[in-house]
Amino acid sequence: MLTSAIISGIGLGSMYGLIALGFHITYVVSNTVNFAQGSAMMLGAVLGYTFGVRYGWPMPLAMLAALAVCALFGLVVERILVRPFVARGSNAWLMATVAAGIVLDNAVMFTFGKEPRGFPSDWAAQPIRLFGAGVYPLQLVIPLVGIGIAGVMHLLLRHTRRGKTLLAVVQNPDAARLMGINVHRTIAISFMVSTALAGLAGLLIAPLFSVSSEMGTLFGIKAFAVAILGGMGSAWGVVIAGLAYGLIEALVTSFLGSVYTQIVVFSVVILALALKPNGLFGHAAINKV
Amino acid sequence: MGLIAKLRAYAMPATVLLLTVVAALYAARAEGYVPFVLAMVALTCIVGVGLNVLVGLTGQISLGHVGFYAIGAYTVAILTLKGLSFWLALPLAGLIAGAIGLLLSLPALRVSGPYLAMITIAFAFIVQHLTIEWRGVTGGSNGLMGLPAPVLAGKLFTEREMALLAIGLAGASTYLFHRLAGSAWGKAMVAVRDAEVAARSIGLNPVSVKAAAFVLSAALAGIAGGIFAALIAFVAPDSFPFSQSILFLFACVVGGAGWVLGPVVGAAITVVLPELLSQLAEYRLLFFGLLLLVVLWLAPEGILGTLARWMRRIDPRPAEPGDVAGFLAAASDKGALEVGGIGISFGGIRAASQVSFTAEPGKVTSVIGPNGAGKTTVLNMIGGFYKPDAGSIRLGGQELAGAPAWKVARAGIGRTYQTTKLFETMSVRDNVLIAMRRGRLGSMLAFAANAADEAAAEALIDFVGYRGPIATAAGDLPHVDRRLVEIARALAMRPRVLLLDEPAAGLMAADKDALSGLLRRIADLGIAVILVEHDMRLVMGISDHVVVLDAGTPIAAGTANVIRRDPKVLAAYLGGAEMRARGRDVPWDGSRDAVLDVIDLVAGYGAAPVLQKVNLQVRPGEMVALIGANGAGKSTMMRALSGLLRPVQGDVILNDERIEAIEAHRIAARGLALVPEGRQVFAELSVYDNLELGANTRSNVDYAAEIEAVLTRFPRLRERLDSRAGLLSGGEQQMLAIARGMMAKPRILLLDEPSLGLAPAMINELYDVLADLRDEGITILLVDQIAVLALAVADRGYVIDSGTIVRDDSAAALASDPDVEAAYLGHAEAAQ
Amino acid sequence: MTFASHVSRRLLLAAGAASLALIGVGPASAEDTMKVGLVAAMSGQSAKSGEAIVRGLSLALDEINAKGGVLGKKLELVVRDDESNPAKGVIAARELVQREKVVAYFGGIDTPVSMAIVPFANQSKVPFIGVWAAGTKITRNDAPENYVFRVSAVDALVDIALVDYAIKKYGAKKPGMILINNPWGESNEAGLKSALDAKKMTAAGIEKFEGGDVDIVPQLTRLKDAGADALFMVANVAPSAQVVKSLDRMGWNVPVVSHWGPAGGRFTELAGPSAEKVHFIQTFSFSGNSNPKATAVFEALKKKYPEIKSAADVTPAVGIANAYDAMHLTALAIAKAGSTEGPKIREGFYQIGSYDGLIKTYSKPFTPDNHDALSPSDYLFTYFKGAEILPLTN
């Protein structure tokens, strides 16, 4: 039971981590987050299905096209739902991105259909045995992708010059502009990366789950919890928090019973933040008096 | 108070009453489901008012209020089903929700922003799952049904009576918010939101202020939930979906957070709009979402906030003078502040150790020393922001070492900050009035100030020398006035000790003289003044006692005259002599083709331009100084040239290319580097990363060699290369900012106030570097408040006054001009 | 694409209606129509159910109106979205009754929404007809004058049938339950427990899962470790598919006896080949149905909704069938009453004699003691063969 719980937990947790990386990237660049992130994940899965299954495009092309549209959605969100509010010093972007999620979910419901559809994949057809528990190969791919992307993002942000320009933008936008950094473009790109990551998560999860217009809501909330738990500021932190979250979910369900899962998990989130107000892997910003 | 002012005071209660009566009459007469919809508007309004306390006053966001709403609803459902009267169950619903709000505030108040949003979301989910799983009590997923209708005086409540009850409570809670916002509690909430650190230093305990807001907010949501349960006569977990939390928040935000009537407007929109759209059936949510976006777009500050922006006007009345001595005398029982052997370490590094001095009432005690010597650290220990590892801090016998800031403040220690920390959205008068409470906030419904308080506040504002309108929002004040108002605010606490952290930074000579006089007058009122300051003329002029720190330890103490001659002080701090700057050995004579040519530049922030047709040229290899009084437009000029301020009119030509219309990052790429005022280093990045970013506009950079070259020029940075830039001292940050600018290998380097906040020795070091850069042929445009130094190092100078260039001559000619000297070179005698 | 153009046309209509609504002009309501309402989930997770109900009602309504309507008036359907939220459902019900003046109205998939409407329905004396939500207490609400009728299954009765089936077919001795964590799951938890009690049996375990759960292995492992020899499954089609996929991964080949959730969509597409092993209860299925009425209705559906091409596109069939029969029965009740007054229509329901419906031929479907038109004898067990639902003969 323990093995299967751990495998389940890692599989789930890396999905949460992948979407949470999207929250991380916009937050470190612009101090804002896109609350329509769950909807972006849904968009990735729905478009992958539409292009790949309904229109019969080759799957790699369908996935690329889906990710491109997701990135475009991120661009639109940043341009018309975040930037105008941030420019006026208002934090109404929070409500605006939430509303964008509602609109997108409903718009997809009327175009894609109200019925959940199955996303066929060879990687999620035949389970393989691993330490006595069955897993689909795709379930092993997801953690690798999640950790891989976190690694790339970490290296990019902390160890490359281009990445450091991203970090500079959030710390001091004016000074960043003086360094020749196009702040608007940088933020827009971070939103595009963020929604593309969510879309990728959607594409990866779809064969394990089903594709429907409301599939993103719960994932979006859990991924946000993961991003916060990890501390928003660190790519590794976010992925590790994702794994921890998935493991807690699976272990609580296995050993205490499903009745307690959500109550325990959300209590853990509150408790963790009470003890570490900047998340498990975040650190307080320098704040000189 | 005049008649109009009196009428204005009654305008809001009258409006609330009118709206309540109209809604009640409508509910009492309308047929069909209208009373029901009105009841829902009223309930949303009550929750909205609760959120308004949280969001509008304390600036906290909650996405979990549906949790409190559900708790209220279930409380009423469970208790009334057990036979308890609704009229007892309803207040209990409020109490229980409030108590749980208090419990939640313990973790919630430790975090902010998205972290707080998450805690509240998690809370809402926990409540939802508990209502599902705690089946014996809550009835599980299928909920509790058949709640008895409330009965009052034998009358059974139908939805019409419930609507009247809800409307009445909505009116009452809106009025309650009006009173709260006007009370000391309300002002304290805003103060904590605007500047939490400063709020602590006027004796406010942010934890209790924020917790109070949280509890009040939760209780209102609980009461609304209780009425909701009785209205629907059925509760189930699905009636309290997470999306409802968002709608509640929307009701608060869309009407205008912080405005009394905001939730009324917001509730009407969030409840009535979906009803109007109900014919759309399945398309309703889609259109509702789109309409939400449209409303947010049109009115990002909420409908009332946006309306108010159009109609805003400010009462121009300045403060009336009054009896300050009498006001301050009331609290002063003359006890000295005795600091004995305090010390503190951060991460193994001793920031201060064995610091001892006594600040006598009526005396000015100055603490000076190089940047990074630990002066502000000592102030922070005295002020209660840092807990000293050792030593004692006694005021009139009371031990204060280690006490939290708000307790220290209440004990009689007021302070100001290096970068002023005012309550930006509050008026000048309210900034002073809230400090006058010394943390004792009184009733939530009583007005914040009586006539005597207001007179005293005005007297203080007048006493410090602020002559502008007292209704101006602090955020709109110019720099000098911010300093003055901050001092007035500290005095409003009737402090026995006043801590001032570099109050003269950024002030011109004349303002410094005025400040000097003010500090003396404050001391003469019997207050112990402790001053941390770099301006030696100011320090030496007014100090009764001077303590010199270096590397965290006192190296000398005594009167100004003793300190002035102490060789240790000269070596560590004053740099061996007074301020100096090295001129060019041979007068500059280079190409006349300007690198930077500014023609008829007009720029500003609002309606009236700050710069009016400015003309200026900088030639290759030349160093040009721009001097002028505070507010003359020097920094505006720098921002306009670098592209940070847009749009501007006129022509700016950089290397034969027009740049007045292009953005800052493109200007930087064309070879103009600005070292901005206040350093603006990337605080969370390492020194090395900051330097690397400096060369961001260039390609093919040999980073190793160039950074090595920069480190040779700024050796102080070498040992700090891997530490976060934000942890550097002010002087080191300034060096880093210049080094970062150098990394761009710019065609022209703009320096905005490089000496701001630096110790004299550091300023000398800085000007040596500037002279070197000049001698190496770098083109520089320099703005500095210490005009005498700027002119000493520069080749040419421009004098700017009220946004226009009034003189343009060689630097030497300007420096020796008696008119210029009188107006701008107040430091001449100090710099001999 | 015809589907896209269909959607955009409807969106356009909706936009027009929205602008009208905003300036306070409702669509003109002619004197010669009679309104019936629907309060159902039209958006969100259960949107598909709302769509199915609207299709069933509209089809029946078209037939009735083609024959001249009821009492000489054409029927008009007014649809409201309850967002699966009981509070919104109550507001919508009030609006339909008090503003739109509907003569009767139908309910959707969510038991709590229907439960919340029940007291208002009895108090306002306008008949409320459930066509999906199976919560037992909806019709058995102990009101002295009960205005709530139902043409759908009843959880308590379904659960007895499920338990019987598991024992008879699989010889189950220690069955486990895997239930969706929502009111429907909870209602069946109670029903299954008492059905097992009646057989002097206890469940090996009761596990819940969320609609959004991807991996249900932890819950199923608990049931397996507790020694479950069969599973009762209660969940909508997509979560049911997650259960089947998780069973597959575990390699646990256990009999699954399910409520009608899998019939709500493309179960085999979602769950893979193992889906065919699940046996589930049904009140109606178009495929393998020899009833000529079923064929006729299916043809009419294809004509009215061009996106329907095969039986696999008609999901969930129960929603359509229940709604279709409920509409006809209601029209009959109004005709019997000879009036649009609620109390008379209520009496009208009791006076319905025989009606040749889609699900069956009803004979005195409602009496003052029985407000449920369907009974356990109408339940049948079915399974998926590819995309088709086929009856099981035992």
From TrEMBL, chain A:
Source organism's superkingdom? Bacteria
Whether NADP counts among this entry's keywords is: no
Q: Which CDD domains does the protein's record reference?
A: TM_PBP1_LivH_like
Signal peptide range: none
Q: Which InterPro entries match?
A: ABC_transp_permease (IPR001851), BCAA_transport_permease (IPR052157)
The compartments listed are: Cell membrane
What are the GO cellular component annotations?
Answer: plasma membrane
The way this protein sits in the membrane is described as:
Multi-pass membrane protein
Q: What's a single GO BP term from this record?
A: amino acid transport
Which Pfam families would you find in this protein's record?
BPD_transp_2
Q: Name one GO molecular function term.
A: transmembrane transporter activity
Q: Where are the transmembrane segments?
A: 6-28, 63-81, 93-113, 133-157, 187-209, 221-248, 255-275
Chief place of localization: membrane
Question: Of which family is this protein a member?
Answer: Belongs to the binding-protein-dependent transport system permease family. LivHM subfamily.
Name of the protein described by the UniProt record: Branched-chain amino acid ABC transporter permease
Task: Give the species this sequence originates from.
Answer: Rhodopseudomonas palustris
UniProtKB/TrEMBL annotation, chain B:
Per its UniProt entry, which superkingdom is the organism in?
Bacteria
A biological process (GO) of this protein is: L-amino acid transport
| Keywords of this entry | Amino-acid transport, ATP-binding, Cell membrane, Membrane, Nucleotide-binding, Transmembrane, Transmembrane helix, Transport
User: According to Swiss-Prot or TrEMBL, what is its membrane topology?
Assistant: Multi-pass membrane protein
Q: Does the keyword Nucleotide-binding apply?
A: yes
Supply the InterPro entries for this chain. AAA+_ATPase (IPR003593), ABC_transp_permease (IPR001851), ABC_transporter-like_ATP-bd (IPR003439), ABC_transporter-like_CS (IPR017871), BCA_ABC_TP_C (IPR032823), BCAA_Transport_ATP-bd_LivF (IPR052156), LivM-like (IPR043428), P-loop_NTPase (IPR027417)
Query: Could you list the residue ranges that cross the membrane?
Result: 7-27, 33-55, 62-80, 86-106, 113-132, 211-235, 247-273, 285-308
Cellular location(s): Cell membrane
Q: Which PROSITE patterns match?
A: ABC_TRANSPORTER_1 (PS00211), ABC_TRANSPORTER_2 (PS50893)
- GO CC annotation: what is one? plasma membrane
Does the record's keyword annotation contain GTP-binding?
Answer: no
| Single annotated GO MF | ATP binding
* Residue ranges occupied by any ABC transporter domain in the UniProt entry: 337-576, 596-827
Q: What is its main location?
A: membrane
Q: Any idea what job this protein has?
A: Involved in beta-(1-->2)glucan export. Transmembrane domains (TMD) form a pore in the inner membrane and the ATP-binding domain (NBD) is responsible for energy generation.
Belongs to which family? Belongs to the ABC transporter superfamily.
The protein's name in its UniProt record: ATP-binding cassette domain-containing protein
TrEMBL record, chain C:
For this UniProt entry, which segments traverse the membrane?
none
Q: Which residues form a coiled coil?
A: none
Signal peptide boundaries = 1-30
BP-aspect Gene Ontology terms:
amino acid transport
Gene3D superfamilies, alphabetized: 3.40.50.2300
Q: Which UniProt keywords apply?
A: Amino-acid transport, Signal, Transport
Q: SUPFAM superfamilies, from UniProt?
A: Periplasmic binding protein-like I (SSF53822)
Instruction: Give a Pfam family name.
Output: Peripla_BP_6
Chain ranges of the Leucine-binding protein domain: 33-362
**Family membership noted in the UniProt record:** Belongs to the leucine-binding protein family.
Q: What is this protein called?
A: ABC transporter substrate-binding protein
- This chain's source organism reads Rhodopseudomonas palustris
